[in-house]
Write a structure and sequence with these properties.
Glutaredoxin, four-stranded mixed sheet, about 30% helix
């Protein structure tokens, strides 16, 4: 079986539901509590590559920091957006399941099942 990693926020109902779906299938992913241990810019770039999406698509636009930091500015580069998420990890959409070279955002939580081997 492919190693599984779940970027998880235990206070988020969607994240808890995704973890429960995995556990119900006998899977025990490595849990990354990204709010406690934020990813580095390099790690987040790798996650984005596995997701096949730009940094902007992973931003939580409803967060106050999104507005405060003017992250809606279209001229911001990938590097700037990634730096913002590293500095303020609550801006990262969750949960994210990584399975080998693939990843998916678990919104809705059932989406995590799409990349299971």
């Amino acid at each position: 079986m492919t190693d599984l990693t779940l970027y998880h926020n235990p206070r988020c109902s969607k994240s808890r539901a995704a973890l429960q779906l995995l556990e119900d299938r006998g899977l025990a992913p490595e849990i990354v509590r990204y709010l406690d241990t934020p990813p580095t810019a390099e790690q987040l770039s790798e996650v984005l590559s596995k997701l096949g999406m730009p940094a902007r698509a992973l931003l939580r636009t409803g967060e106050d920091d999104y507005k405060t930091l003017n992250l809606s500015e279209p001229g911001l580069s990938e590097t700037q957006l990634i730096a913002a998420m590293v500095a303020q990890p609550k801006l990262i959409e969750r949960p994210i399941l990584i399975a080998g070279n693939r990843a998916i955002v678990g919104r809705p939580p059932e989406r995590v099942l799409e990349i299971l081997p």
